[in-house]
Amino acid sequence: MIILRNACFRLHESPKFLLQNKRRSDVVFVLKKIVHYNGGTAKPLPLSGEAELGTPVRSMSHGEPASGSGSGHNRLLMQGDARESSDSDTNSWLEWPEAENATIAGDSTTQQPNTRKSWIKTWRHSVKAMLDVGSHARMLKPLFAHQLRRTTVLVWLIWAVVAMGFTMFNVFLPKLLEANNSAPKTSAVTPGSHAIQVRVYRDSLIYAVSGIPGSIIGAWLVGTRLGRIYSMALSTFISGLALIAFAMAAKSSNSALTIVSSSVFGLMSTLMFAVIYAYTPEVFHPSVRGTACGMASALGRVSGIIAPLITGLLLEISTTVPLYVSVGLLWIAACCMVGLPIETRDIAS
């Protein structure tokens, strides 16, 4: 993937990120690429002239109104309605001050890395930015302001705890199903036999299919009186109950209860993740949304990596111990969800 990513195509940096780091010429370069890719045209805008197209000019800097001449800011002009200009040969265009041309031409960071030297320079710049701890700290600081501190901590905790609780059950599900189907009640078949493998695959298929309606139900449920918070809290709590039933099925060798409990867990866990994925970007302002969601996802991934290691140790004690630990983690996450201070159901993103 690394070879394909770097050798076959190049992803440009986000214009918002470049603008925040005061790399104006790079902003224009990336926007030109986007406009050209989508069939538009790009042209310089005279510093002393006004927009001749009758389209309002929006300054690229945050919160600044577009000024007439001499502002020096990059300007993006987008046609207001493509339907009203169907007779035009283009649907969008980019304009910027002519003075920016010299900056763009002389700025090596905006040129495509066609040589080994430029590649090395690009990688060096990327590594330097990655190791800039101060810059990363400044990006995280707004998330811990008084208004967002509680939301940030709870959301990140939810992602980490839910990922660990879910993975502890999901990764070892085939082993747990095999243990349930190899109970003394079914001693006519030996562990690892073809009959047990068929049952394990059957139960795994039912578990996977049962999760399909979860996202659809979640999409409907978030618009009800439950909202985002109580929808994911309720689904997380029921997921824990389903795991308790699964653990009881392991002790009683009840095949029907195993199928029902795993199916309920598959449905509720899919619903839970659907609402979590919807709520997280909604609750954060666009200026910090990328950082907040990225950190939440990273914490979830790290927890998902650690979970199998812990589960492997717990399975040496008993096959039901990881299940009860998962229940505890999911119910902790449900409590965190109820404690979230912001309901986003009626809030525009």
Which helices and strands, and how do they pair?
Elements lengths: L1 H6 L7 H6 L3 H14 L3 E5 L12 E2 L15 E2 L16 E5 L1 H8 L9 H15 L2 H8 L8 H22 L2 H9 L12 H17 L1 H10 L5 H26 L2 H29 L2 H30 L5 H18 L11
Parallel strand pairs: 1-4
Antiparallel strand pairs: 2-3
Helix pairs in contact: 3-4, 7-12, 7-13, 7-14, 8-9, 9-12, 10-12, 11-12, 11-14, 12-13
Strand order of the largest sheet: 1-4
**Secondary-structure-derived class:** mainly alpha
Mean pLDDT, nearest integer? Answer: 76
How far is the N terminus from the C terminus? 33 Å
Number of helices: 14
Total number of strands: 4
How would a textbook summarize the main sheet? Answer: 2 strands, parallel
Shape: globular
Into which percentage range does the β-strand content fall? under 5%
Please estimate the helix content.
55-70%
Radius of gyration over all CA atoms, rounded:
27 Å
Uncertain stretches of 5 or more adjacent residues:
47-94, 96-100, 102-113, 185-189
Description of the structure:
- This protein has 349 residues and is mainly alpha-helical.
- The chain contains 14 helices and four strands.
- The strands form two sheets. A two-stranded parallel sheet has the order 1-4. It has a two-stranded antiparallel ribbon with strand order 2-3.
- α7 (149-170) runs antiparallel to α14.
- The radius of gyration is 27 Å and the shape is globular.
- The relative contact order is 0.10.
- The model is unreliable at 47-94, 96-100, 102-113 and 185-189 (pLDDT under 50).
Summarize the structure.
The chain has 349 residues and is mainly α. The protein is 62% helix and 4% strand.
